Each structure stands twice: as structure tokens, then as C-alpha cells.
Amino acid sequence: MLKIEQMELGPVQTNCYIVSDTNKKALIFDPGEEGEKVRALLERRGLTPIAILLTHAHFDHIGAVDELRDEYRIPVYLHNLEKDWLGRPNLNGSGKYAALPDYRINDADVLLKEEKELEIGPFRMMLLHTPGHSPGSISFYFKEDGFAMVGDTLFRGSIGRTDLIDGSETKLLQSIRSALLTLPGETVLFPGHGPDTTPAEEKNSNPFLRES
Which Pfam family, any one, appears in the UniProt record (predicted)? Predict the structure, then answer.
């Protein structure tokens, strides 16, 4: 069984997740800021990270990418549709807020282009393209372990915002209904902010997903 550990990082408390196996290999999902906290957790657990995976390229999910990539010499994975976003504040959203510095991150090492099974070391997951919050939003589904990393596509009782660059409520709702709510009802969905949820819970209680 894989182990999932969560920490809230950065100015808007973005969820970063560390997924590890019994051999202490680990994946880092969405290291939004505060790389020192990520390193401290990895060291406490004796984990060796082998990749950084990004659900999308908004500033609050990418702030510690270069720091951790350089520290551990590991590749960064991102959807091809957002390949230019890491280094451009007008696209990653940091340029929208005067109180924030401009986030300029180096290019991703691996660009993901289609839905498929992805293997990284001992880890196997399905890529689910879930656009709407952003055009290149990806959910990473670990079928055997019954969970998915869904970024800012779906939250407990809510959905991702769609008022940023290339956001679309229509696409977002389609992604949620076709890709996430069709997963087994007990699948644990780990979002970019807030507590985890399940498809069954969201079908029953999410006001944004009620059929008109």
C-alpha cells in the first residue's frame, strides 16, 4: 500500500502531497512553496523523491519546484498545454496580484500529452485530463490504491474557480462528471485545497453538481 502525507504550503495554503511506497521511494505533488518543509518531511521519513508531478501550473502549486528539483535532481511532470506557464507570471497567475512576487519557474522536464497509464519507478497511475480550472489540469488516479490527486478541479462541496486564464465552467463540470464522478464511489479524492472527499460524497451533497 502507498502512503499519502499532506502539508499546506504557501500564501493560500495549497495542499502538497508526498506519496511513498514501502521501499521509501516518493513522489511530490504540487510543491506550492516552502521547500524547506517538504525537505524536512522527506528527511524525517527517510524518503527518496524520484519525481515532482504538477496537477497544473498556477503559482500556488509551483513555488518550490525549482528548489526541490535542484536539491534532488529529479524531473518535473506537467501537461503540455501549460508548458509555457511556469515561467510566465501572466499565465501562472502570480502577475495578477501586486502583493506577490512574479513566479518564474524553469521548464518542465516531461510534458504529458494524452490520457494513459504513467509509470514512474515503482508507481503506476492513470492520467486523467480534467480541464476547466486551467487548460492543462491533470488528475492522477492510483486505481490499485483507490485514490486520485485532483488539483483544483474538485473540492469537498465545491469546484475549482474558472475566472483565470483559459478557465471554463462548462469544461470543468464536464471534466468532473466524466472523469471524477465515474470513478468508484469510495475513491479518495485529494484536492489542491481543503479536505479530501469521494465521488459518492460529491454526487450526494455538492451543490455545484446538482442536475438542473
Answer: Lactamase_B
pTM, whole model, 2 decimals? Answer: 0.96
Tell me the per-residue pLDDT of 171-212, one tens digit each, with 9 for 90 and over. 999 999 999 999 999 999 999 999 999 999 999 999 999 864
Output the CATH code of domain 3-209: 3.60.15.10
How is the chain split into domains, by residue range?
Answer: 3-209
